[in-house]
């Protein structure tokens, strides 16, 4: 089954803990993205990566970190510095050859801070 | 600043009625515009993009550069159209491969 997978589906965290959200794709896409989805605020870009070992901050990167050691994987760490981490997190990927390519999305991870 | 505005959080229509989901953008160049849709319990997925000039599931969207709008339209709504719809902008050239999303409109089609 091809596509983008995210795990876990639900994640609970205590305040002060770091957690890592997994995102894997087997679409051979170069670019990968992390978004945060909150009610009434749409999708906001956290981090993105266009190539292995390189990534850029999005609009709301504070309190988050990423790595891109493999083309297939783009894990997101929500650190204790993120003041309001409870949200739905979406990972996406796309081809970078050509322009205006479709972004493909994962099923999402819902993070709740207890 | 680059921005996408969807003024309606919720749009409720009856089955068979026309639908128009509004999208306005702010961008100094010529962007590419997209509509993404998220059905209940499904992933966010591309509905249509301006560059393709296509009609998907009866939906169309016309780019109006004078009004900086990319409204999504369908002449006769169906119950299965109920979903969250997001308008998105990609700056011209696509060099950054980034999308800027609006806040979304929830379309509810009543029977």
- Spatial gap, N to C terminus of chain B: 40 Å
Per DSSP, the total helix count of chain B is 0
Number of H- or I-type helical stretches of chain A: 0
Question: Into which percentage range does the β-strand content of chain B fall?
Answer: 35-45%
Instruction: Please report the total strand number of chain B as a whole number.
Output: 11
Relative helix content of chain A: under 10%
Summarize the structure.
Chain A is an all-beta fold and 114 residues long. Helix content of chain A is 0%, strand content 51%. Chain A has strands at residues 4-7, 10-13, 19-25, 31-38, 42-51, 54-57, 64-66, 76-78, 87-94, 104-105, 109-113.
Question: What would your notes on this structure say?
Answer:
- The complex is a heterodimer of chains A (114) and B (111).
- By secondary structure, chain A is mainly beta.
- Chain A is 0% helix and 51% strand.
- Chain A starts with a strand and ends with a strand.
- Chain A contains no helices and eleven strands.
- In chain A, the strands form two sheets. In chain A, strands 2, 4, 5, 6, 9, 10 and 11 form a seven-stranded mixed sheet that branches. Chain A has a four-stranded antiparallel sheet with strand order 1-3-8-7, with no helix packed on it.
- With 111 residues, chain B is mainly β.
- Chain B is built from no helices and eleven strands.
- Chain B starts with a strand and ends with a strand.
- At the A-B interface, strand 5, strand 9 and strand 10 of A face strand 5 and strand 6 of B.
Give the key terms.
heterodimer, A: 114 residues, mainly beta, 0% helix, B: 111 residues, three-stranded antiparallel beta sheet, 42% strand, globular
